[in-house]
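W.,

You were right to be curious about this one. When I first looked at the sequence I had no strong expectations either way, so I just let the prediction run and decided to look at it fresh. Below is the sequence, 170 residues in total, followed by the output.
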Amino acid sequence: MVEDIGQKVRKIMKLSTENFFKKERLIKMNSNKFLKMIVIICLIVGVVGTSAYAHRMIVDEPENGEVQVRFDDGTVAPDADVTLYDEAEEVILEGQTDQDGILSYDPAIEPYQVVASDDVGHRAVWSSDGEGEGFFMMLPAWARILLGLAILVFLAASMMFWKQKQSVNN
């Protein structure tokens, strides 16, 4: 009878060891698939994300009676519609930029807020109190993409850790 119990214990231990290594192999296989998926997502975000952020419109701070509207890749925004507002949000001036992306106005005017837009749908806001664009949008495109990827990798790693913990507990 003692021998039967010993054989049963050895059989259970052997099955437990085999199951453990099967689970470990399964986790490694899922990790490889996960890493491949992360690489594919990074490539997609890198290719699509770069083109999507390549032409973010920016309004430079007005000075000496001129305001320049440009894109974040350095090109100017010709024929952009520009509206200057005072502190009471009343329109001071409306106009279009020239071929150099500049709108000239009377230097005596002190705009509180400048809003620029174009026919394609770009829109940018400059405000003397620093409002308009949030911190995230003030970052260069490469930094926004890198931050987004870091968040995705962190979330994915957290999920992997959680799943491994769940599989060990089961």
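Here's what jumped out at me. DSSP finds three helices and seven strands in the chain. And, maybe more interesting for your project: The chain has a mean pLDDT of 78.

Coffee later to discuss?

I.
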